[in-house]
Design a protein that fits this description.
Elements: H1 13-19, H2 23-39, H3 44-49, H4 56-67, H5 76-115, H6 117-133
């Protein structure tokens, strides 16, 4: 579950630790299953018209299962919103890292070309070759 961070109170820390399971991963898995069950019963038109929420029975099942490991689950919609926001932040961070890496690569290439006129000529020939093969 890298990049996904939602917060909820852990009421039974000893119980949560004894289960040997990661409460975050368990909650995420349960939410995924509940969302799939809920969405699987509706058409696309219904989803677009209604603000679909998880079925009450599924939400109660999630609360009971997480309570068994000492985690209190509040409003399911809020947890889903936090998860979606965390995923978007993780995606934005990934894009930012990729852009930074690309900028560094361009900068390093520019430095090398500044130091070596032969490298500039090789790059010119490479570009010319690409243009001629089109």
């Amino acid at each position: 579950m890298p990049g996904r961070h939602a917060f909820w109170p852990v009421l039974g820390t000893v119980r949560a630790a004894r289960t040997g399971r990661n409460p975050g991963e368990s909650l995420y898995r349960l939410l995924q299953l509940a969302v799939r069950r809920t969405l699987g019963t509706r058409t696309l038109d219904e989803l677009l018209v209604e603000k679909v929420d998880i079925e009450p029975a599924s939400a109660e099942s999630i609360r009971k299962e997480m309570a068994a490991v000492g985690v209190e689950v509040g409003e399911i919609r809020e947890i889903l919103n936090q998860t979606v926001a965390a995923e978007k932040r993780a995606q934005a961070n990934l894009i930012r890292r990729q852009e930074t890496a690309a900028t560094r690569s361009i900068l390093n290439t520019a430095r090398l070309m500044e130091e070596s006129p032969i490298l500039i000529r090789l790059k010119e020939l490479e570009t010319l070759e690409k243009l001629l093969t089109r």
